[in-house]
Design brief:
elongated; signal; 7-stranded antiparallel β-sheet; Immunoglobulin-like; alpha+beta; 2 domains; Secreted protein
C-alpha cells in the first residue's frame, strides 16, 4: 500500500515538473529561435587541460560555424589558445596536440596540429582554422624538444574532446 502511494506521488511530481517545460517550448517564437542560433555561434571555452604530472597545460576557445543539419560537419572551426611549459628542465617542452577529423569527399581522415612551448612559465599563443570539421580533440604532453610529438604522446592516454559535429 505504501509503495503505491509513493509511486503515485512520484508520478504527480514528475508531471508537475515537466508542465512548465512543455509550456515554454510551445511559446518559442521566431525572435527567440534567432537568438538561440546566434548563441550557438559563440566561441566556447575549453581547458585548462594538463599533461601527466601537470608538467604542461593548455586552454583556449573553439568556435564552430553554425549549421542546420546536425549530421553534417561544420563548415569552419577556429581554435585559439595558449600552451605553457611547466617543466623546469631546459630540454623539455609543453605540447598542445590537436587531432582534427574532417570530411574529404566520402572519407573522414584526421590530421594533427601541434604547438610547442619550451619557455618555463611563459605562455605561447596559437590559433588555427580548419574546414569541414567533424571532430576536434586535444592532448597535452610534456616531452623533450623535437620536430614532432612522440608516438607516446600521440597514441598513449586519452584525447580530450573539444568539438563533435553532432553537438
Amino acid at each position: 500500500m505504501a509503495a503505491r502511494t509513493l509511486t503515485g506521488i512520484a508520478l504527480v511530481a514528475g508531471i508537475l515538473a515537466l508542465t512548465p517545460l512543455a509550456a515554454d517550448a510551445a511559446t518559442v517564437d521566431a525572435g527567440t529561435a534567432g537568438a538561440v542560433s546566434a548563441q550557438t555561434a559563440a566561441a566556447r571555452q575549453w581547458g585548462t587541460y594538463y599533461a601527466p604530472g601537470r608538467r604542461a597545460k593548455a586552454y583556449g576557445t573553439l568556435w564552430a560555424a553554425p549549421k542546420d543539419d546536425p549530421s553534417r560537419p561544420t563548415s569552419l572551426a577556429k581554435v585559439k589558445g595558449k600552451v605553457f611549459d611547466r617543466t623546469r628542465t631546459g630540454s623539455a617542452c609543453g605540447w598542445a596536440v590537436f587531432r582534427i577529423s574532417y570530411r574529404d569527399g566520402s572519407n573522414a581522415p584526421h590530421t594533427f596540429r601541434t604547438f610547442t612551448n619550451c619557455k618555463y612559465g611563459k605562455a605561447k599563443k596559437f590559433s588555427f582554422d580548419f574546414k569541414n570539421v567533424y571532430q576536434v580533440e586535444l592532448k597535452v604532453c610534456a616531452e623533450p624538444r623535437a620536430a614532432k610529438p612522440s608516438l607516446n604522446c600521440l597514441y598513449a592516454g586519452t584525447w580530450k574532446n573539444l568539438y563533435t559535429y553532432f553537438e
